[in-house]
Structures are given as C-alpha cells and as structure tokens.
Design brief:
CATH superfamily of the largest domain: Homing endonucleases
Structural class: alpha+beta
Distance between the termini: 75 Å
Largest sheet: 4 strands, antiparallel
Helix content: 55-70%
CATH class of the largest domain: Alpha Beta
Strand content: 15-25%
Strand order of the largest sheet: 1-2-4-3
Shape: rod-shaped
Number of strands: 10
CATH topology of the largest domain: Endonuclease I-creI
C-alpha cells in the first residue's frame, strides 16, 4: 500500500464522537465526490462515487452512525482501468437524501439544489474544521511518498470549493496554495514541515510518526552527504595545491637550484618534495624548530611566487 493509501486507511477508521464533527466530515466528502440526482417524478437521491474503499467505508459508517440511514452500496469495474473498482453509495429515499443535505448545510432552499460550497456555520469550531479537512483529503486528496519528495494535494471541482478549502486549511497557519490543473483546481502544500502539521490537523498520528521518521533519516543522510562532499572538496583542494607546490619547487630546483634560496625556503622546499601528501601542519612539525600552518603556507607561497617570476623571465627572453 502506498503512503497515501496508508494515511487514508488510518483516517477512514477514525469516527468523531461529536455529531457536529461527523457532519463536517460528511459535508466534505459529499462536496468533493457527491452528486444529487433528480427524477421527473420529483424523487431525488444522493450519490457518492469513489475508487477508494477507505472513503466508501468511512462515508457508509458516518451516514449510519449519524442518521441511522441505510446506504445502498454497489461495486463496479472501471472500464478504462480494469483492475480499479468504483464504489457507488446511494441514498435512494428522497426524505433521507434531503435530511442529509440539510444537516450538512449543502441544501439550497431557494433553488432546490445542492449549494456549490458548504455553509460556514457548519465549521465554526476548530474541531469541525479539522474534520472537514480530513473528509476532503479522504475524498479527493493524495500525498506523495516522503522517501521521494514532499507533496500533499486535494483536488477540487470548482475554484469556489478550492478557495473555501484553502481558507479552512490556512486557518491553522498553513500556507496552502492553489493551482489549476486541466479543468480542476488543486489545493496543495509542498513543505515537509507543513505536511507533518497537516497530518496532525487531520489526526493521522501513525502516519505522522512514520513521516517524521523518514524526514529524520533523510536529514541525517543529507547531513552526511554534505559533510562528505565538503571533506572531498577540501581534500581535492589540498591535493591540487600540493601538486602545484611540487611543480613550482621542481622548476626552481631545475633553474636556479635550492642553494640560491634562504635557509627557511630551502628547508620547506626539500620537505615538500619528500612528503608531497603531507598537510601544512604536518610539514611544519617536521621542521626544526617547528613552524605553524601559517608560517609553512607563507614559505610555500614565496616559493610559488618565485617560480612564477622565473617562468615570466624565461618567456621574456624567448
């Protein structure tokens, strides 16, 4: 099961004790994947369609516990995706469908139809906002594998629904954004820390701990990689500098010889040729008396400058 599937499975098994929270979660599910069917004889039924068994299970349970209404469930194969199943949950009695829609604040008395967004009266409490986000994620959300990258999104049918969901999420100091993808509007979060907070808001505590473990391991790996890269860069820099120093000293030896150098420069030149892999500190400890890193670096820089001068003089004579 994918990480997104694990999160939904955990959320589907949570049933809020408060009726107001159950109504908020139901409102989100119906708003995201519900449809009101009207018939010529005046009968209406309420349908919810989903490919996720966790969503079907949660919706069925919420309807039963909150209203004690029977929901007809049917399962069909997706014509385009042979392995996928589509779950159809239908409340066939008109009075039952109306009772649910009015309770979740999605019924428009003026137009005798579903409202485009829920009435905010339903989500005045913070707990109800959490439940609504949980329902929206269950119905139309997904979260990427945290081993690869961080991305949480909830797909909305209309911009109006996306704006409302974004506002509810950002009530918890989130930074949810909206992007249009084909004909849909996607509310998304890409920051790893905020996705952890979102799992906490939705009360997916097991998934939250799993995500935190992944984040810690990734941070450790990144830290180790940064340290290794830094050390590798330093080694490469040191080796390159040592190779250049050896080349300069050999050039001085071939042109004017060490006997023309001061005692300090001659000593460090000979030591560098004998110990090309040694660090500045190690070279300084081999001198008598010992010299610090800055002193060794100063002498080697002097030798490099002298080698460059000799090369320039040779070019001028040519």
């Amino acid at each position: 099961m994918s990480f997104s599937g694990e999160v939904k499975d955990e959320l589907s098994r949570q049933i809020s004790l408060g009726r107001h929270c159950r109504l908020a979660e139901l409102a989100a599910v119906i708003s995201c994947c519900g449809k009101l069917m009207k018939y010529p004889n005046g009968r209406v039924d309420l349908r919810v369609q989903t490919e996720n068994v966790a969503v079907a299970r949660k919706y069925f349970t919420l309807i039963k516990k909150t209203f004690n209404i029977d929901t007809e469930l049917s399962v069909k194969r997706n014509v385009y995706l042979k392995k996928a199943r589509i779950y159809h949950l239908v409340i066939k009695k008109t009075e039952d469908a109306m009772e649910v829609l009015k309770a979740v604040k999605l019924w428009d008395n003026r137009n005798n139809d579903m409202l485009p967004v829920i009435n905010t009266i339903l989500i005045q409490n913070a707990c109800c906002k959490r439940a609504f986000i949980r329902g929206a994620f269950l119905a139309a959300g997904s979260i990427s594998d945290p081993e690869k990258f961080y991305h949480l999104e909830i797909v909305c049918i209309t911009k109006e629904k996306a704006n409302q969901l974004q506002e509810i999420i950002n009530h918890f100091q989130m930074d949810a954004k909206i992007i249009k993808r084909k004909k849909y509007y996607v509310v998304y979060i890409k920051d790893g820390t905020q996705i952890v907070d979102m799992l906490n808001i939705m009360e997916a505590h097991v998934a939250l701990m799993n995500l935190e473990n992944v984040r810690i391991l990734k941070e450790m790996r990144n830290s180790v990689n940064r340290r290794v890269n830094c050390e590798t860069a330093n080694i490469n820099k040191t080796v390159s500098a040592a190779v250049k120093q050896v080349e300069d000293i050999q050039y001085i030896s071939k042109t004017i010889g060490f006997h023309t150098l001061s005692k300090g420069l001659a000593e460090i030149a000979e030591l560098r040729l004998k110990h090309p892999e040694a660090t500045l500190k190690e070279l300084g400890m081999l001198l008598n008396p010992q010299v610090g890193k800055s002193g060794v670096n100063h002498r080697l820089r002097k030798l490099s400058e002298l080698a460059d001068q000799l090369r320039d003089q040779k070019e001028e004579t040519l």
